[in-house]
Design a protein that fits this description.
By secondary structure, the chain is mainly β. It is 1% helix and 53% strand.
């Protein structure tokens, strides 16, 4: 690569380029790869400084770079990609809420992300990982950062680059640049180690060799503690020539990163749409999520074909909606996994839900004037009806088949109308206290209205040891009336 093409990489920094104050390190990556990563630690800093951690595809399609900066506005992370040759726009799929995305111009055009809300700290190591992948005939680029002191990862962005099959093809590099030319005598010192690129296969290549170029005075480049360093400042004494080659030793055949894991999974089944929503969180101390898989089975061993599923390559998504409206009453088991940015699959996080409609009904007050328990199994205008006695209706529905064991939450949905308006009270039987507990009230009119209520705290107390539950509906007026119940469904989550 010519010196001219190397120096062109300073494009896109904030402010003008000052090549005389920049120094570069070019790694021995050979071939196309989809992941690059590098660790950085700043020992000393000064204003208007760009510490580039990774650059790629210099002068080619999807050329870009990422790193950290010390600017008049504070310390930031930056990620930049130049516009594609087809003239279409790069779009922002996701970016961390602490930062912002905007186009840049002046030295070519493109899109970049900046965040000052997650500032880096002197003397601390950070890992930056960028990945390119195919999605809907485009190429997506992502950036993740690990704060090695805190031990936590953060997903900073996903960009949609409107061309297919783009990868990190060549010119992996790092640089130190005083882009504003300020405080030239101030020492700036960056350290880089554990640089890797993943090729097809997959196989990993280590940045074991770095070719450097630097100013002939007040600048130095070298290796210390198996880490490359670049330094500038009036007190900096050069060692060796203005160009040369440095070497480090790979710590193994590939990077070692703890496999990404789910921290929590929370299912939520809608009693009205009969569809399932699954929300989850991930363990920030493990490798970040790249994709997810949510599958629903009718057995705890997850055997056979899933009855419903949702999968996607979407690093930022933490909610999946599954169509389960065709499922019959019963217990269903949810198998949730994530794949991390290094294509490692997490352990299975198993949850379940059970959903039932009434299988029996009992009367405390009033007279059954139509229908039965099964009339409440669907919202179909086939109603269970109770005529008031002493201007009051009081009955309970029995739900069975929830299975044994504690539950995390539960809810009940009722659809009611009456021959005259009033207010109905919905209660659940607490098996621990032996008493009905009010879970809510709902206005009842002459047309059907649906309401959903959550079980109170300690929801397991509202299931018997054999998996039964009891929900009471009561309503009183100053005159006689008939209460009609078109639909009831109860769901519990484990």
């Amino acid at each position: 690569m010519s010196a001219t093409s190397k120096f062109a990489l300073c494009l896109g920094t904030i402010g003008a380029c000052h090549l005389a104050s920049a120094q570069h390190l070019w790694y021995n990556d050979a071939g196309s790869g989809d992941i690059m990563m590098n660790d950085i630690m700043i020992s000393a800093t000064g204003p208007t400084t760009y510490y580039e951690v990774l650059g790629w595809n210099n002068g080619g399609e999807a050329g870009g770079y990422t790193g950290i900066q010390d600017t008049p506005n504070g310390r930031n992370y930056i990620y930049s990609i130049w516009d594609p040759s087809n003239g279409q726009a790069i779009t922002d799929v996701y970016h961390d809420s602490t930062g912002y995305v905007e186009p840049f111009g002046g030295e070519g055009t493109g899109m970049h992300f900046l965040t000052y809300g997650y500032p880096w700290v002197l003397g601390q190591w950070y890992t930056l990982v960028t990945r390119a992948w195919d999605y809907n005939s485009h190429t997506y680029f992502g950036l993740w950062v690990k704060d090695q002191t805190a031990g936590t990862w953060r997903h900073l962005l996903t960009f949609n680059y409107p061309m297919a099959n783009i990868r990190f093809n060549y010119a992996a590099n790092s640089f130190l640049e005083n882009y504003g030319g300020q405080s030239t005598g101030t020492t700036r010192h960056m350290n880089l180690k554990d640089g890797w690129k993943r090729y097809s296969g997959p196989s990993w290549g280590y940045f074991s060799q770095g070719d450097y170029d630097r100013p002939s005075t007040n600048a130095n480049t070298g290796v210390s503690g198996n880490a490359y360093f670049m330094e500038t400042g009036s007190s900096t004494i050069p060692s060796g020539g203005a160009t040369g080659t440095l070497y480090t030793t790979a710590p193994g055949g590939s990077p070692t990163v703890a496999t990404g894991q789910l921290a929590s999974v929370t299912p939520s089944y809608s009693n009205t749409t009969k569809n399932l929503t699954v929300n989850w969180t991930t363990d920030a101390t493990k490798a970040p999520q790249f994709g997810y898989s949510i599958q629903v089975f009718n057995n705890s061993g997850y055997t056979g074909s899933p009855l419903a599923s949702a999968t996607d390559t979407a690093p930022h998504i933490r909610t999946a909606n599954l169509t389960t409206s065709s499922l019959a009453n019963g217990i269903y088991y949810i198998k949730s996994t994530i794949t991390d940015i290094f294509d490692q699959t997490s352990n299975v996080n198993g949850t379940s839900f059970a959903t039932q409609t009434p299988n029996a009904v009992g009367i405390y007050g009033g007279t059954v004037s139509g229908g039965s328990a099964t009339s409440m199994s669907a919202s179909d205008n086939s109603r269970y009806q109770v005529a008031s006695a002493s201007n009051s209706v009081n009955y309970y529905a029995v739900f069975s088949g929830f299975g044994s064991g504690s539950i995390l939450s539960g809810n009940v949905t009722v659809e009611l109308n009456a021959s005259a308006t009033g207010t109905a009270t919905i209660s659940a039987w607490n098996n621990s206290t032996g008493a009905w507990v009010n879970v809510g009230t709902t206005s009842v009119g002459t047309s059907d209205a649906t309401s959903t209520f959550a079980l109170p705290s300690s929801p397991s107390q509202y299931l018997t040891s054999t998996g039964d539950a009891f929900i009471r509906v009561s309503m009183s007026r100053s005159s006689s009336f008939t209460l009609r119940n078109d639909y009831m469904r109860m769901t519990v989550n484990r």
